[in-house]
Amino acid sequence: MHLRKRVLVTGGAGFLGSHLCERLLAKGYEVLCVDNFFTSSRSNIEHLLPNPRFEIIRHDITFPLYLEVDEIYNLACPASPIHYQFDPVQTTKTCIHGAINMLGLAKRVKAKIFQASTSEVYGDPTIHPQTEDYWGHVNPIGLRSCYDEGKRCAESLFFSYQRQHGLDIRVGRLFNTYGPRMHPNDGRVVSNFIMQALQNRPITIYGDGSQTRSFCYVDDLIKLMVLFMEDESGFCGPLNMGNPREFTILDLAQQVVKMTESSSEISFKQLPTDDPKQRKPDIAIARERYGWEPQFRLHEGLAQTISYFRKLLENDDYQ
Ligand code: NAD
Ligand code: UDP
Ligand code: UDP
């Protein structure tokens, strides 16, 4: 017999997943972390292993999984463009077969299930800021489509399982999030710029740096994720999850160089195809429903992240 809530976190060893596991353990739950370590390593969750309420299973969610749980957070999926374009077919399989398996599991055990969707469902958006009712502007055959269309199809599956089988779903659209435990070599802009600055290597700006992103610190995002999951009002999203403060990539580069007191120079590289020109969430729904507001300003979150990467470099323990 189980009295404690048992929560499954897929992708639990990843950047966001490891912070989520930590938060759920702190709430007193039993946490089952499922991961195939495609873009992560055990080091992200090593500190959780001594906790008797924490368990880790090496498993690829494109294959069926039979467990008894009360809640599922489906985060498993490579998230950085370099990682998700490395094996695009596997990325789409993870998004779609993974979603079907986790939805099948949720259906069998009657578990509530959260999907980590993405602002990429909006593609290169033609409205700004992006509201949840915007249908998006995605190139269905471009290099990013393995991820964008995979995540769009996963959203469709979540709503079909809700309508057809009465599943209790939550769909959150995550915008760019950063913080400690991002992979140092995953190619995302925040990790790239900080690693380059700390090593006094050139800061690689793709294009002229005028494209924008809105960066959310991991603690703020995880707080909203749990609030949303715990909402029993019947609201299932989609919900924009991110920080609406928008910066150009050039602003970000300059801020990182300043904060690290780096001698790095800026080096302009070619802009990848289909790179969205602007991105900023409209977070009115999160504000109204949960009174949620990001607490970390960019320089505060960057300070935490810089100190994490500095330690990695000092210990020489990154691949
Ligand atoms: P991450 O790469 O650090 O974590 C993803 C985790 O999923 C890794 O531990 C990886 O090994 C695991 N994984 C990948 N494929 C798997 C599979 N088939 N089976 C089991 N495990 C698998 O990325 P993250 O930033 O922590 O992202 C987590 C989730 O949030 C992803 O679904 C991503 O699409 C979504 N998201 C993240 C952001 C962001 O800015 N960080 C933005 C939008 C959406
Ligand atoms: N599934 C799973 N774990 C479970 C139940 C189902 O991994 O506990 C997988 C199973 O492989 C199935 C998929 O989820 O293919 C979808 O399940 P569903 O019940 O919707 O469909 P069906 O079993 O009818 O194909
Ligand atoms: N970018 C950059 N230099 C880098 C890595 C990324 O200029 O070294 C740019 C990238 O072209 C994009 C933005 O930063 O415009 C955010 O890229 P990231 O890969 O972090 O996320 P996404 O494009 O998925 O928002």
Provide the domain count.
Answer: 1
Largest sheet descriptor: 7 strands, parallel
Strand order of the largest sheet: 3-2-1-4-5-6-11
- E-strand count: 13
Gyration radius, to the nearest Å?
19 Å
Level-1 CATH class name: Alpha Beta
Count of helices? 9
Query: Going by CATH, what is the homologous superfamily?
Result: NAD(P)-binding Rossmann-like Domain
- How many angstroms does the end-to-end distance come to? 42 Å
Order of helices and strands: EHEEEHHEHEEHEEEHEEHEHH
Short summary of the structure?
The protein is of the alpha/beta class.
Write the layout of secondary structure elements.
Layout: E1 6-10, H1 15-26, E2 30-35, E3 54-58, E4 71-74, H2 81-86, H3 88-109, E5 112-118, H4 145-165, E6 169-174, E7 177-178, H5 189-198, E8 203-206, E9 212-214, E10 216-217, H6 218-229, E11 239-241, E12 246-248, H7 249-260, E13 266-269, H8 284-290, H9 298-315
Helix pairs in contact: 1-6, 3-4, 5-7, 5-9, 7-9
The site of one uridine-5'-diphosphate has 9 residues, from helix 3.
